[in-house]
Amino acid sequence: MNFCLNTQLSSTKSSGYKFAVTSASTVAGKSISMANSVRVAAAQMTSVNNLAVNFSTCSRLVKEAASAGAKLLCFPENFSFVGDLEGESLKIAEPLDGPIMRGYCSLARESSIWLSLGGFQEKGSDDAHLRNTHVLIDDNGNIRSTYSKMHLFDVDVPGGAVYKESSFTEAGKDIVVADSPFGRLGLTVCYDLRFPELYQQLRFNHDAQVLLVPAAFTTVTGQAHWEILLRARAIETQCYVIAAAQAGKHNEKRKSFGDTLIIDPWGTIVGRLSDRTSTGITVADIDFSLIDSVRAKMPVSKHRKPAEFWNRSV
Fold first, then answer.
1. Which entry of 58, 74, 105, 190 is annotated as an active-site residue?
2. b or e along 70-87 (b: 16 or more beta carbons within 10 Å of the residue's beta carbon)?
3. Which residues are listed as membrane-spanning (predicted)?
C-alpha cells in the first residue's frame, strides 16, 4: 500500500504555542487550486470495540459521500474504535504507519476523497499512553497533516460519568492548519471546542477558513452545549465549522450525543442529519465567496485588540 506521512513545517509563535502547517505543493508535485465552492460531508456513526465493524461502516459512508459529490468526508472522534473495557484503547493503539491507518489511506485513495479522521488512537511515547490524533488524508491516500488533541477531558460530568482522559492520553502542544481544496483547515478534537482561544489562534493568527471538530460529546454536555458552542466558534471566527459526531449507545457504559453539523461563517446550520442518533452523512457546500463577504461586512479581524493590549500592565 502507498503510505506517505508529510513532514510538517514548524515555527514558534509569540503565543507560546507551536504551529505546524502542511503545504499542498509538497505532495506528489500536485498544487492545490480552489473553486468558488466545493462540496463536503460530515459523518455520524456509533463506533464499537471492533476495528473491522467500524471500518465497514466507514467504508459505506465514504461511498455515500463520494456518490453525493463530496470531496471531503469528516469522521468523528474515535471513528475506528470505542473501547468497552478499561485499557482496550491502549491495546489497539498503533503508529500512523500501522495497518489500521494504512487501511483508511487506501479507502481515501480508492474513492478519490479526502478524509478527516478525528480521534485516532495513535501509539504514545510509552505503553501507558496514546495520542488522540486527528489525521487528515488526501485523495491520493497520503497523510497530509496530523493534530494531537490539546485539551484532555478530565471532568466529573453532572448527572453523568467521571472521565479522566489524561490517565492514558498524552496532550498535544501544536496548533495545526493545512491547506486543501476546501480552504485552509484548522484541526481540533472534541473537548478543544470549549477553549475559544485555540480557534482564535487558528483564524486570526493562522488564517483558517474551515474548522474541523470531530467529537464524541456525552449526552449531558451535548444536550446543554454542543450546538451553542459550535455556532459560537463559527460566528466569532467567521469560519465554516464541520462537526462530525459519535452518536447513540456504544456499550453498556457509554453513550454519545450525536447531532453532526455543518455551520457557515454567519452561524447558520447548513448541514444536519434529521436524526441526531442515526448513522449517516450530511452534505453541504463550502462557499468561499460567503467567507469573504461575511469578513468584509463585519471586519472583526481589524477591530480586535492586539495581544499587547491585553498584556499591558493595569
1. 190
2. bbbbbbbbbbbbbbeeee
3. none
Pairing mode, strands 210-212 and 183-187? parallel
Q: What is the pTM of this model?
A: 0.88
Joined grid coordinates for residue 178: 493545512
Has 239 been annotated as catalytic? no
* Cα separation, 5 vs 280, whole angstroms: 29
pLDDT tens digits for range 89-114: 999 999 999 999 999 999 999 999 99
Convert the pLDDT of each residue in 114-171 to its tens digit: 999 999 999 999 999 999 999 999 999 999 999 999 999 998 877 777 778 988 899 9
By C-alpha distance, which of 147, 51, 178, 148 is closest to 104?
Answer: 51
Which residue among the candidates 58, 71, 74, 77 is catalytic per the annotation?
Answer: 77
Q: Catalytic residue among 149, 170, 227, 239, which?
A: 149
| Three-point CA angle 304, 298, 293, nearest 5° | 130
Question: What cell numbers appear for 245 in the block?
Answer: 459526531
The C-alpha atoms of residue 11 and residue 226 are separated, in whole angstroms, by 32
**Phi, psi at 130, each rounded to 5°:** -125, 175
Q: Give tens-digit pLDDT for 22-52.
A: 444 333 334 455 579 999 999 999 999 999 9
* 165 given a catalytic annotation: no
Answer yes or no: 190 catalytic: yes
